[in-house]
Write a structure and sequence with these properties.
Chain lengths: 205, 290
């Protein structure tokens, strides 16, 4: 029951992301011209969903830190359980979004299913980690963290862009399939380690 | 009998030392009143005893086991605090129902029937968002969580803040009923001393991060008195006694006295000796310390 609470929170937020993507796709379809094929619509929706899957979990992670984390701690939950709960929450949020991403990739771009899975997983891990890190910063530093969080996001988006652009420019796109999951996992691990420390020192107010 | 023990508890926020090596032992089956001036460290103490605030130094144990990050001990403790409904806390978007559902998920001994009954009795709308509740209504919600948690050690921080006199009486009755039925331990931090004194068994007076006094209320008030009269008469009457909060007005003098066992104010002096309420005693003790 306690674990399901975190999974439920993640699933609710995944539903928000997917609903937004679905509404956008429907909007494109309704307003689109007849020259576009269904394949084109899926391709556009993919780009939109990828964007949503990047930004939304980050926002939700910060929201969770300011709301769910102190609340659960105030009900006598240990910090370790909260940290584990956050991992469950993220998995529950990422999996449906990733599933939809892969589906749209395949339908829209006809990219290899393994490639699309790896790319979305890497992106999900990377930005979820950054989102968690930003959330942890808000609890660690308290007020006046907006600038810090903005900085973290500018750096992380720039790093992500560089990681993608360099292989594309050098026409070595294949290498992305190795680099991105590695970077994603590394960033996620580092961020959750920081989170663990932040939660340990968290004081419920 | 269960014992919750704090030893050499220290808490600092930056340079500010809130708790200064505090020792405290709480026994099960009692209602404790925790009183102290603003900033004395009451909320900090309660939050440290319930794992909500990391310790700078010292230990908190329940039956010999550390409370910090110990789910077994934490299942027996509930700290129902004043709800912080600021924009950044995010709680304002929660409905009463959702808040109680979350409480039910994490508090292992949750009594749903009791929670539902209290919500009805307090006339709280389950669909209402916390941000829309008045201070009194938020206190009612806090009381609901504290009582329905059924935790062996339950701490309430300012539970009657914002409540009208009728609701306050309702709370004291609910508390006493629950205490009589279950024998749970309650620690109530409050500024409304006189009212709460009727339900407290023991009082803990906290001042500047230290326990100034911890005693059975009846025993304490029976040995406290207020002595007034001409200054020289008062001085003669209370010579050698434990005096606090001395007030001088012209030739008159008033002194609060805490009598030790076997002591008495001298009867051969022309002074007036009056019993002292807990609130007056608290003011005398804390004024002196300030």
């Amino acid at each position: 029951m306690r674990r399901f609470h975190w999974i439920k929170e993640g699933l609710v937020q995944a539903a928000v992301i997917l609903s937004a993507a679905a509404v956008y796709t429907l909007f494109l379809f309704m307003t689109g011209d007849s020259t576009k094929s269904l394949h084109d619509y899926f391709e556009m929706a993919t780009i939109y969903l990828v964007g949503m899957a990047v930004i939304m979990p980050a926002i939700f992670n910060i929201y969770t830190y300011t709301q769910t984390v102190p609340l659960t701690l105030s009900f006598g939950v240990t910090r370790k359980e909260v940290w584990l709960g956050l991992q469950l929450y993220r998995i529950a949020m990422l999996l449906p979004v990733m599933g939809a991403n892969v589906l749209l990739f395949v339908l829209g771009s006809r990219v290899d299913i393994l490639v699309s899975l790896v790319l979305t997983l890497a992106g999900g891990l990377y930005f979820s980690g950054i989102g968690g890190f930003s959330g942890a910063l808000t609890v660690k530093l308290g007020r006046g963290t907006l600038l810090m969080i903005a900085l973290v996001w500018i750096v992380s988006l720039a790093l992500a862009a560089v990681l993608v652009v360099i292989p594309v420019v050098n026409k070595k796109v294949d290498i992305l399939i190795y680099i991105l999951p590695l970077v994603g996992t590394l960033v996620y691990t580092l961020c959750t380690c920081f989170e663990k420390k932040a939660i340990k020192a968290l004081c419920v107010k | 009998m269960s014992v919750l023990k704090c030893e050499k508890l220290v808490k600092t926020y930056g340079q500010h030392r809130v708790l200064q090596g505090l020792d405290l032992t709480l026994e099960s089956g009692k209602i404790y009143g925790l009183i102290g001036r603003n900033g004395a460290g009451k909320t900090t103490l309660l939050s440290m005893m319930s794992n909500q605030n990391p310790l700078t130094g010292g230990t908190v144990t329940l039956d010999g086991e550390p409370v910090w990050e110990n789910p077994k001990a934490l299942h027996r403790i509930c700290f129902a605090r004043e709800l912080n409904i600021s924009a950044e806390s995010g709680l304002s978007k929660y409905t009463v129902k959702r808040y109680l559902q979350t409480a039910a998920t994490f508090l292992p001994h949750w009594d749903r029937e009791m929670a539902d009954r209290l919500i009805r009795d307090f006339d709280l709308d389950p669909k209402k968002k916390l941000g829309k509740l008045s201070k009194g209504m938020l206190s009612m919600l806090t009381i609901t969580v504290a009582l329905a948690s059924k935790a062996e050690f339950t701490f309430l921080d300012e539970p009657v803040a914002g409540l009208d006199v009728v609701a306050r009486e309702q709370f004291y009755k609910l508390l006493l009923d629950e205490y009589t039925d279950t024998g749970r331990t309650f620690v109530i931090s409050t500024h409304i001393i006189e009212e709460a004194a009727d339900v407290m068994e023991e009082v803990i007076i906290l001042n500047r991060g230290k326990i100034l006094l911890m005693e059975n209320i009846q025993a304490l008030t029976s040995r406290a008195c207020h002595v007034t009269g001409l200054a020289e008469e008062v001085d003669r009457a209370v010579g050698g006694l434990d005096c606090h909060g001395t007030e001088v007005l012209g030739r008159s003098k008033a002194v609060t006295v805490l009598l030790r066992e076997g002591e008495a104010v001298s009867k051969n002096c022309d002074v007036t000796v009056q019993p002292l309420s807990l609130q007056k005693l608290f003011v005398a003790l804390c004024q002196e310390e300030a």
